[in-house]
Amino acid sequence: MIEYTLRQLEVFAAAAEQESLTRAAELLHLTQSTASTHLRTLEQVLGVTLLLRRGQGGVALSEDGQRLYPLAKKILSQCQALSEAATDPHRLSSLPLMLGASTVPGQYMLPELMAAFVQRHPQSRYELRHGDSAQIHRLLQNGQVRLGFVGTRTEAEGMVYYPLLQDELVMVTPNTAPYQALQRRGVWGRELLGEPTIAREQGSGTDRTLQQYMARTGYDTRNLRIVARLEDPEAVKRMVTQGAGVSVLSALSVRQEQADGRVLVFPMDETGLQRMIYLAHRQNLTPTAAEKQFLTFVQGHYHI
After folding, report:
1. N or C: which end of the chain has fewer CB within 10 A?
2. What backbone torsions phi and psi does residue 266 show, to the nearest 5 degrees?
3. How far apart are CA 154 and CA 280, in angstroms?
4. Nearest-5° angle of CA 116, CA 205, CA 268?
5. Alpha carbon distances (Å) from 68 to 9, 157, 177, 287
């Protein structure tokens, strides 16, 4: 006999996705005490701890929670599909694509890609989670997303990667007279690594690629002068344009600012600092019909 309810599963899934029981309660229009009761009852019925409580109302999936979250999400999605099919029995309803994207592909690739996909397949639905490359890999590993767009590969086994697009990391500076003079002299971006720097967050594909580059070229990281670390490349670019420092960023992310003359772009060296943007999934993934359709579309879009 099933002793848990869909509402309890909704609270569990929402709290896991929001990483906060308070925000989950708000999303589901519940009081926090009611949401807590639902979650506690579900944990008692299942006999496991699903979420680890953190300070200031934050929560994180436990080991059992990571294992059971995909099943709970599947049940909720199937119930939604059942409701839709009952409303319109002739409508072919499918589960939404569970996607994740790190910052650069999420902001500068996916808007165009998903618009084209939805236009081609208007009945498709998808849910998108954002994070840095390390976070998206964790979401893939624990099943919270099924397909992920990332700017770096992980050393962990059990992942499949499809190379989509080659990106270049470049040194970005304010468009001021001193940097204009350096650009006329043919200075490389690597020569500006000692400037005051606004860096991307640790764990991002951009930061990992830059760290690998400095190790490969023998650059002493003690010479770096990092004045800030930010997650959002848009915020990084605003700080650069306002003269707060320089930054190594994806060339994809600064095309507009370079065209508008708000920043200057320096290749890192003679060959350029290249990195690949990937679509990734777990090796043991059994793709749904919708996921097969999406994978075929992405491969055709990027000619792979």
Report:
1. N
2. -115, 120
3. 10
4. 105
5. 10, 22, 58, 19
Helix (H, G, I), strand (E, B) or coil at 154: coil
Strand partners, 280: 148, 161
How far apart, in whole angstroms, are the C-alpha atoms of residue 131 and residue 139? 9
**Residue 8 CB neighbour total at 10 angstroms:** 22
**Interstrand relation of 196-200 and 225-230 (parallel, antiparallel or unpaired):** parallel
Contact assessment for residue 125 and residue 172, using Cβ atoms and an 8 Å cutoff: no
Tokens standing for residue 207 = 């930061």
Note the pLDDT of residue 80.
Answer: 75
Compute the C-alpha angle 140/91/298, nearest 5°. 35
CB 226 within 8 A of CB 199: yes
**pTM exceeds 0.85 for this model:** no
- DSSP, collapsed to helix, strand or coil, labels residue 20 as strand
Three-class secondary structure of residue 295 per DSSP? helix
Q: Which of 276, 255, 278 is nearest to 265 (CA)?
A: 255
Which residues is 248 bridged to in the sheet?
171
| pLDDT attached to residue 87 | 61
The pair of structure tokens assigned to 90 is 């002739």
Q: CA Rg, the chain, in Å?
A: 22
Per residue in 226-278, pLDDT (tens digit) is 999 998 999 999 999 999 999 999 999 999 999 999 999 999 999 999 999 99
Contact in structure between 101 and 119 (CB atoms under 8 Å): no
Nearest to 114 by CA among 80, 141, 155, 149: 149
d(CA 234, CA 240): 10
Using DSSP's 3-state secondary structure scheme, residue 183 falls into helix
pLDDT given at position 51 = 93
